[in-house]
Amino acid sequence: MDTDPDAPVLIFDGDCPYCSVAAVALRRLEGVVAVPWEADPVGPFLDAQFGSRPFAMVLVDPGEGRVYAGRSAAEELADRAGTPGIVGGLVRDNYDRIAGVVGTLSGRGRDPADVHDTYELTDAASGLVDDLRPAASERPEALS
User: Fold this and answer.
1) Does residue 2 fall inside a structural domain?
2) Is residue 76 one of the residues assigned to a domain?
3) Residue 13, by phi and psi: left (phi above 0), alpha (psi -120 to 50) or beta?
4) Residue 124 domain-assigned?
5) Number of Cβ atoms within 10 Å of the Cβ of 66
């Protein structure tokens, strides 16, 4: 697990085997700490950042002081992975469709929240980023 205090943290659907595989791959490629949405420290972080617990892909970049959610998180991850700009745009524009298909295939019983912007990392949430790191996902069960 990356201990760099500025390393990005990805919050993802840990109940989804497809999402887990993608999160682990991104962590290896980009140094992203991948934490499942269901992990205990995620709820307090989301409360501090959003005032609620939206079920969404969230990329926290403490070094930039930014939080990307939903479509913005997907596009930012595609950009950081070095995919051509058109891929990031396609991911952003089709986020809801992709999330719906993945949710159906994985049997997830909830829809992603409608949060898709880039936000300033709040002071309260910033103080909780380090609590997320110990909850980083290990190798997903789908690959075990």
Assistant:
1) no
2) yes
3) beta
4) yes
5) 16
58-61: strand order across its sheet: 33-36, 9-12, 58-61, 66-69, 118-120
d(CA 77, CA 28): 13
**β-strand partners of 119:** 67
Query: What is the residue whose two structure tokens read 């089709």?
Result: 94
Number of domains the chain contains: 1
- pLDDT 10s digit of each residue in the chain, 144 long? 446 888 899 998 766 655 555 665 565 556 788 898 889 999 999 999 999 998 888 999 999 999 999 888 877 877 777 665 544 444 545 555 555 545 544 455 566 667 878 999 999 999 999 999 889 865 444 433
pTM for this entry: 0.74
Residue 76: predicted pLDDT: 82
Tokens representing 116 are 């898709």
Structural domain span for residue 46: 9-143
Beta bridge partners of 59: 10, 68
Chain length of the chain: 144
Q: Residue 60 falls within a domain, yes or no?
A: yes
Among the listed residues 3, 23, 2, 5, the one whose alpha carbon sits nearest the alpha carbon of residue 14: 23
What sign for the dihedral angle of Cα 90, 95, 101, 107? Answer: positive
